[in-house]
């Protein structure tokens, strides 16, 4: 967070934007960071005994369970720094968005954002052209798509079959501020983020 506010004192920024909860297996957090946030009242949930789920999985479970009566259709979880590191971690993060497909989870990096388009819906994606695009892609996940259709892309799909080992929609380009997608398979939507 301090890098986002370079003219402010780093300690002030860390105190102002402290997490409510730190949950995970605690293998990648430095002791002094943990102690700092504990001293500010951040709740620490150590799940080091659970090695079958990732830290992201643990956190999404917490968010889902902390407010069971919350209207999940309005919930959006933004995961910063979810891409661009170790490939196995990236795949684990993709697995989480599939596992929690009823929640809207957006994975964000310096270069792109990704979210799941479940096959159960026709999707209308509104493009914030000032910060995202023009490059985008649609990637079938888990199983091939025998029929995917889009509007709003330079190379629209028209009942197109997509699968790994065959065609996937990469390096496509959004042509406006709205893209429509319908598929018989879950798809990953990815779009580039513009450098500010």
UniProtKB/TrEMBL annotation:
Single GO cellular component term: cytosol
Keyword Kinase: yes
Annotated EC: 2.7.6.2
Keyword ATP-binding belongs to the record: yes
Compartmental location: Cytoplasm, Cytosol
Domain of life from the UniProt record: Eukaryota
InterPro entries per record: Thi_PPkinase, Thiamin_PyroPKinase_B1-bd, TPK_B1-bd_sf, TPK_catalytic, TPK_catalytic_sf
Domain Thiamin pyrophosphokinase thiamin-binding per the UniProt entry, residue ranges: 121-187
Biological-process GO terms, alphabetical: thiamine diphosphate biosynthetic process; thiamine metabolic process
Alphabetic keyword roster: ATP-binding, Kinase, Nucleotide-binding, Transferase
Primary enzyme class: transferase
A molecular-function term among this protein's GO annotations: kinase activity
Function statement: Catalyzes the phosphorylation of thiamine to thiamine pyrophosphate (TPP). TPP is an active cofactor for enzymes involved in glycolysis and energy production. Plant leaves require high levels of TPP for photosynthesis and carbohydrate metabolism.
Record PANTHER family: THIAMIN PYROPHOSPHOKINASE, THIAMIN PYROPHOSPHOKINASE 1
Protein name: thiamine diphosphokinase
Species this chain originates from: Durio zibethinus
